[in-house]
Amino acid sequence: MNLSAYFARIGYTGSTAPTLETLTGVVAGHTQHIPFENLDPLLGVPVADLSPAALTDKLVSRRRGGYCYEHNNLMRYALTDLGFDVDRLAGRVVWMNPAGLDGPPHAETHQALAVRIPGVDEPYLVDVGFGGQTLSSPIRLVVGPVQQTRHEPYRLRTHGRDYVLEALVRAEWQPLYTFGIDPRPLIDMEVGSWYVSTHPASTFVVGLSAALVTDDARWNLRGRNLAIHADGATERIRFDGAGQVLDALANRFGIDVSGLAGVERRIAEVLDT
Are 156 and 143 in contact (CB under 8 A)? Predict the structure, then answer.
């Protein structure tokens, strides 16, 4: 893990001591500078290698983004090098699912992190890879209290044997995903990543998504539709064609799309998916 290159990528110049201040600053820089995107699965490129070298090459050196398995494993490598104790957690997404928590369970296709700070008893939940509603700050991994992030308030509740993460969106508590706190090995994450990046029905294979968190807004792109959520209001932009979407990916989200063969043609095929 090349920490200097990673810090330059996320614009972080603060302390490297394993403290809550450092954790909060690294999470903020990461969510502001490395976008969520699924261009590799959309182009038929499986995301199978979650090693430090592969993730640093893609998300740092090549200035691409990625999805949860890429973001949160990169974050884990960085935090571990800084002296934090970090466990991988597996989750089941319920966000935007009409059946919500009461429907049939989805597969475990999300990854988050439990981070322990030296000298602090309770762990923190860190998740820099949940797309449009990703946590912009670490929160304590405790059930009950409402916890303010750099953006919306969040809270944790119990759901059977698991936890459920909820966000206050449009004045309503919305469940995002359930997760357990048993540490999971990298191989479990590799299996999940292979599934979501190759399964023919995966949303990452059949549609385009991108997201970025700024100081005061959330930028969410689905197909040709861009939504910018800020100060309780939403600005919506509908792009005419794939060329405009590609321009937004490059200039609004900061994704280096050079060298992605056939990307404009593929985007044109999923503009309304």
Answer: yes
